[in-house]
Amino acid sequence: MSKKHVSADVLISTILKGIDEVKGEHIQLLDLREIDNTICDYFIICSGTSNTHVNAISGSVQKIVGKEAKEKAYHVEGEAEANWILIDYVNIVVHVFQKPVRELYDIEGLWGDAKITTISS
């Protein structure tokens, strides 16, 4: 019997709840579905104020998504340095940045063709 996955909308709202729970900042949802050859359907990008805050956001997202949506991240990287933590839920990838690192990599600029929604926090 295969495990039933939650819908993208449920997963997105649960991820946003996890970010909001620990006051993640400058949250943006990038819809990549209209772009050819993307690795996933959505990016959720947010910022933390320090490596402690970035780790707290990542931990909160993983805990709340696990508890409420019953989904476990496929892959997580960057937790040791906590400058940029990537949480991969296959169709949705969450990027939690410290502000200077976010500005350096400019994911929103790189994916300028995406439909970008700013989430008020």
Task: Describe the fold and architecture.
This protein has a single domain, classed as Beta Polymerase, domain 2, CATH 3.30.460.10. Helix 1 (8-21) crosses helix 2. It is an alpha+beta fold. It is globular and about 35 Å long. The protein has helices spanning 8-21, 51-69, 99-105, 107-110, and strands at 25-31, 42-48, 75-77, 84-88, 92-98, 115-119. Helices cover 36% and strands 28% of the residues.
In short:
The protein has four helices and six strands. With 121 residues, it is an alpha+beta fold.
Give the overall pLDDT as a whole number.
Answer: 94
Number of strands: 6
- By CATH, the superfamily comes out as Beta Polymerase, domain 2
Structural class by helix and strand composition: alpha+beta
The portion of residues assigned to helices is 25-40%
Stretches where pLDDT is under 50 for at least 5 consecutive residues are none
Total DSSP helices? 4
Proportion in β-strands: 25-35%
CATH names the topology as Beta Polymerase, domain 2
Strand order of the largest sheet: 3-4-5-2-1-6
General shape = globular
The figure for the number of domains is 1
Gyration radius, rounded = 13 Å
